[in-house]
């Protein structure tokens, strides 16, 4: 799995998941429980993961729709 997106904004995560689903790319959302425990105030970001084989297509779909792809370590 490779990290595609990291954001505390739940609307961006939902939009990204819908885009990936439309492209036929499976994704997995991480840190959901931590985000829920903090009460939804946006302190802890959620992560969206994709399979390494799908990363290039997923990143292209995100960039084409104005969503910044995570470029961290």
TrEMBL record:
Domain spans labelled DUF2007: 1-64
Origin superkingdom: Bacteria
InterPro entries xrefs: DUF2007 (IPR018551), N-reg_PII-like_a/b (IPR011322)
Record field: transmembrane: none
Protein name: DUF2007 domain-containing protein
Organism: Roseovarius spongiae
Organism taxonomic ancestry: Bacteria, Pseudomonadati, Pseudomonadota, Alphaproteobacteria, Rhodobacterales
């Amino acid at each position: 799995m490779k990290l595609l997106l990291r954001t505390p904004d739940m609307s961006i995560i939902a939009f990204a998941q819908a885009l990936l689903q439309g492209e036929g790319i499976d994704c997995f959302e991480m840190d959901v429980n931590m985000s829920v425990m903090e009460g939804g105030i946006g302190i802890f970001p959620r992560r969206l993961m994709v399979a390494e084989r799908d990363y290039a297509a997923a990143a292209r779909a995100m960039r084409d729709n104005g969503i910044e792809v995570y470029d961290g370590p």
